[in-house]
């Protein structure tokens, strides 16, 4: 379907970390008025902000930048309490020794980049310098003390790596805060929610059903991950099991802390309010 003809334009991050929520979605949403558009996280963030996409799993930081325009679906996120396995900092020296070093960043994520800045600057008291580069580890490490990779790029390098120390940003966040971290949230533009309330509800139900179906029997999804990305079944079973796709009060609390730190460090002009969509209401989360 042409995106211009669709009543609801749904973005999709083309990373394995969102597969459970999307894997069965096309067969569960009955409406012909839905178009799915695949993008990297930063592209989807921009498209949502511009009104070119109506809903999708945007970076949590991107929600914080434009939260007045969005509401969040409940029960849907890419979150972790501890290891996330696909947001990894590669470095040759211990983290405390490179906290004021030179860091190479990918151009594909806002949430993870700012999470790393919180870890280095707030938790370790560092004053690092940053530069952006294509997600090729050996190139990124030339002239840098560390390189951040996310998504499938990080996964592949973690398999190949025999040279660098690896810090999992999910683990580091949990170690310092004791909180969950939500890396992506399912945002819905407020104007789309008003225009197509029934279609928005239909899409939400299909997402939740896809998540439940993938959780109950992940074998097809794991087989496809092995075929298209590589790796062993045991790795992917552990990966999908470790990530959390829920979005409830525990995840909200961790995300509110993330937004507060982003505001304190000047990444956001003000802490974002988390507002949760439901069929009949929109409710603001309070601490």
Automatic annotation (TrEMBL):
SUPFAM superfamilies: Periplasmic binding protein-like II. It holds the Pfam family VitK2_biosynth. It is an enzyme of class 4 (lyase). Keywords: Lyase, Menaquinone biosynthesis. Its EC number is 4.2.1.151. GO terms for biological process: menaquinone biosynthetic process. It catalyses: chorismate = 3-[(1-carboxyvinyl)-oxy]benzoate + H2O. Pathway: Quinol/quinone metabolism; menaquinone biosynthesis. GO terms for molecular function: hydro-lyase activity. PANTHER family: CHORISMATE DEHYDRATASE (PTHR37690:SF1). Belongs to the MqnA/MqnD family. MqnA subfamily. Catalyzes the dehydration of chorismate into 3-[(1-carboxyvinyl)oxy]benzoate, a step in the biosynthesis of menaquinone (MK, vitamin K2). This is Chorismate dehydratase. It comes from Paenibacillus athensensis.
């Amino acid at each position: 379907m042409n995106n211009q003809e669709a009543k609801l334009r749904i973005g999709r991050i083309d990373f394995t970390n969102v597969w459970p929520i999307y894997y069965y979605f096309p067969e569960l949403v009955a409406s012909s008025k839905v178009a799915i558009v695949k993008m990297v996280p930063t592209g989807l963030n921009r498209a949502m902000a511009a009104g070119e996409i109506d809903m999708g799993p945007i970076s949590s930081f991107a929600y914080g930048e434009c939260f007045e325009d969005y509401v969040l679906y409940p029960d849907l996120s890419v979150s972790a309490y501890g290891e996330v396995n696909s947001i990894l900092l590669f470095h040759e020296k211990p983290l405390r020794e490179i906290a004021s070093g030179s860091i190479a960043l990918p151009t594909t994520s806002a949430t993870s980049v700012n999470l790393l800045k919180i870890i280095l600057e707030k938790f370790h008291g560092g004053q690092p310098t940053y530069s952006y580069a294509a997600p090729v580890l050996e190139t990124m490490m030339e002239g840098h003390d560390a390189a951040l990779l996310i998504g499938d790029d990080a996964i592949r390098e973690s398999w190949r790596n025999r040279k660098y120390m690896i810090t999992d940003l999910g683990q580091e966040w949990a170690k310092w805060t004791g909180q969950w971290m939500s890396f992506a949230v399912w945002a819905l533009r407020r104007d789309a929610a008003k225009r197509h309330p029934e279609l928005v509800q239909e899409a939400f139900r299909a997402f939740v059903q896809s998540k439940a179906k993938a959780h109950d029997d992940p074998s097809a999804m794991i087989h496809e991950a092995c075929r298209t990305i590589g790796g062993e079944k045991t790795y992917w079973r552990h990966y999908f099991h470790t990530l959390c796709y829920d979005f409830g009060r525990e995840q909200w609390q961790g995300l509110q802390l993330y937004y507060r730190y982003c505001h304190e460090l000047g990444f956001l002009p003000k802490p974002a309010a988390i507002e949760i969509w439901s069929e009949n209401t929109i409710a603001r989360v309070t601490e």
